[in-house]
Each structure stands twice: as structure tokens, then as C-alpha cells.
Specification:
Layout (H helix, E strand, L loop, with lengths): L1 H9 L7 E3 L1 H12 L1 E4 L2 E6 L2 E7 L4 H5 L6 E5 L2 E2 L5 H8 L6 E7 L7 E6 L1 E4 L3 E7 L2 E6 L6 H14 L4 E5 L8 H8 L8 E6 L5 E6 L11 E5 L6 H13 L3 E3 L7 E8 L2 E11 L15 E2 L4 H5 L4 H8 L1
Parallel strand pairs: 11-12, 12-15, 15-16, 16-19
Antiparallel strand pairs: 1-18, 2-9, 3-4, 5-6, 5-7, 7-8, 10-11, 13-14, 13-18, 17-18
Helix pairs in contact: 6-7
Length: 319
């Protein structure tokens, strides 16, 4: 029965619409809680290929050198050409201390590379920040979870009390999360009653519109935003809402382009994650499969990675 349902959902041809059996459903809610055992990567299917959206910070995947945009062509001995997302997740995850070998093909590389990754307990952080120059805060947002608003509220108070005058908002490798969480995050940077995001159904009807409910404590501070191809979904919503409403510039690389909206339907102890709409920027544009093009395009090369340089952050600081 589970196989039949997966086949029905698979016939939609939408990698974001998936049937989750009880085991998969439990794993899905573990993700939202911010703790699970695995390697620490967000993945999707792009152009028919299993693709790394982003490695999570301070995880085995990041330490092993996996990068946004890497194509995973094999998981151990399993070829991924016809694999579903939930099957890929099941193969990559496992007990902490065990090893999974990911065969990846990187942009510009001549051949595939086997990367062994030792699984561990993954604790997903919400944010981190530091004062990298007097008055300039480098604020990294890693995901949009149920506690993102509370974390931002607490850390914003600390930033301001420490003398924050300008902010580099780093959304690189932020794979997204809860849409409502990104809307609440936008409120920290915007005035009240501004449109953050809206929904459009496949027949052209308009869905919900999400506005800021209050004026945020960081709305008057000069700001610039870092993005890359690992910036996806709710992170793209936040970046474009701030760019449109405040004229803030984006620095880095074109984002992932995940602009579809999923609804979670409970079916007993199983569930169905179904694409029901696409989200639109405040200017009414869809970025699905196109992504956001930065105002200042700055590449992060393999040489930069090896030399521990960050030309994107450097450019943001210049601006």
C-alpha cells in the first residue's frame, strides 16, 4: 500500500510532493525539532539529479568538504539517478559513528569523487553572530525553525547592547524551513504592515498574503545580505522581502530557486507533503527554479575554500 501511494505521488513529477510512511513522518518531525543522526546536509532533486542544497554548519558534511551544488551520484553502492528524496535521506542517515560514502560530482571537476562521511548526532543551530569590526555585526541565520523568532529576539538585544551599528546578514547555505518563521524574522528588519510574501495557486488564484505585524529593532540599521546557491526556500523569501521593501543589496551567487509551498496532511501515523501553491515576492514575481540574482555577483571558488578565504564577506564589508 505504501508503495502504491508513493507511486501515485511520484506520478506528479514534483520532487517536493512526497508520501511519508510512519518512520519517515517521525524523521520529518525530528528535523523540525532540530536534532537527528546523520551527516548534516540539506538535499533536493535538481534537473533530475540529487543535489546538495547546503551543508549545515559544524556538521560531518561540512567538515568532509561537501558544498552547495554538489551532485550526489551514488550513496555507498546505490546509484541515485532514479531515487526519491525520502529514499536518499533514509540511505544517508544512520547511527552515529557509522560511515556513508557519497560519490559527488562538483561543478568544474573532471571526474566524480568519493567522500566518506562519519555520521553523528546533528544539532541544527538557528543563528550565530560576531562583531567582526567595530560596530559591524556578521549575523548568520542557519534555518527557520519554531524557535527562530525567540533566538533572534534574544540575540538582537545583545547585539544592540554591544554597539551594533551595521549588519551583514548571512543567509548562505540556509536551506529554509518554516514559511511563517521567515515572515517573523523579516519583522526584525522591516517596518510594520509591509508585504513579505504571498501565495498563488496553479489556476492563478491568489492565496494568503503575509505582512509584518510590527516594526523591527533592526529596521534602521544599514544592512547587506549574503546569498549563494545553498540559499533556498524561506531564506530566499527573507532576502527578497528585505531587498524589495528596503532596497537592500544582495552579494554572492544566484540562489537555489525553491519557490513552491507544501502543505502537510496527516494520514493516520503517516503523512503527505503536497505542493499546493507557489510563493511570490512582494513585487509579485516567482523565483521557482530561477533563484534570486545578487546585485553584486561574487564567486566563492575551490581555491578560496582551500585557502580559507571569504571573498563574498570581504565584498559585503567593502559595500
Amino acid at each position: 500500500v505504501y508503495g502504491a501511494i508513493k507511486g501515485l505521488v511520484g506520478s506528479l513529477g514534483d520532487p517536493h510532493s512526497v508520501f511519508l510512511n510512519p518512520e519517515d513522518t517521525e524523521r520529518f518531525f525530528e528535523d523540525l525539532s532540530g536534532s537527528f543522526e546523520g551527516v548534516g546536509i540539506e538535499i533536493s532533486i535538481r534537473d533530475g539529479l540529487l543535489t546538495v542544497i547546503s551543508p549545515l554548519k559544524n556538521t560531518p558534511a561540512e567538515r568532509a568538504g561537501l558544498r552547495a551544488g554538489d551532485k550526489i551520484i551514488k550513496i555507498d553502492d546505490t546509484i541515485t539517478s532514479d531515487i526519491t528524496l525520502d529514499e536518499a535521506v533514509r540511505l544517508i542517515r544512520g547511527t552515529g559513528g557509522t560511515t556513508v560514502v557519497l560519490t559527488i560530482l562538483r561543478k568544474g571537476a573532471d571526474r566524480a569523487e568519493d567522500i566518506p562521511v562519519v555520521r553523528d548526532t546533528i544539532i541544527i543551530p538557528v543563528l550565530d553572530w560576531e562583531m567582526i569590526e567595530p560596530g559591524i555585526v556578521h549575523l548568520e541565520l542557519f534555518q527557520f525553525a519554531e524557535n527562530t523568532e525567540d533566538e533572534l529576539r534574544n540575540e538582537t538585544a545583545k547585539m544592540l547592547s554591544d554597539g551594533a551599528e551595521r549588519i551583514v546578514l548571512d543567509l548562505r547555505n540556509n536551506h529554509g524551513g518554516l514559511l511563517v518563521s521567515s515572515v517573523r524574522a523579516a519583522e526584525f528588519f522591516l517596518e510594520k504592515d509591509l508585504l513579505v510574501v504571498s501565495e498563488r495557486f496553479s489556476d492563478g488564484r491568489k492565496g494568503s498574503e503575509f505582512y509584518t505585524n510590527r516594526s523591527g529593532p533592526l529596521r534602521g540599521l544599514p544592512l547587506i545580505i549574503l546569498v549563494n546557491q545553498g540559499t533556498a526556500s524561506a531564506a530566499e523569501i527573507l532576502a527578497e522581502a528585505i531587498r524589495v521593501n528596503r532596497g537592500i543589496e544582495l552579494v554572492g551567487e544566484t540562489t537555489f530557486g525553491k519557490g513552491s509551498v507544501q502543505e502537510l496532511l496527516n494520514i493516520g501515523s503517516s503523512s503527505l507533503k503536497l505542493t499546493v501553491a507557489e510563493w511570490l515576492t512582494p513585487s509579485g514575481e516567482s523565483i521557482h527554479e530561477n533563484g534570486l540574482k545578487p546585485d553584486h555577483e561574487v564567486e566563492f571558488t575551490e581555491e578560496d575554500f582551500e585557502a580559507e578565504r571569504d571573498p563574498q564577506l570581504d565584498r559585503a564589508l567593502e559595500i
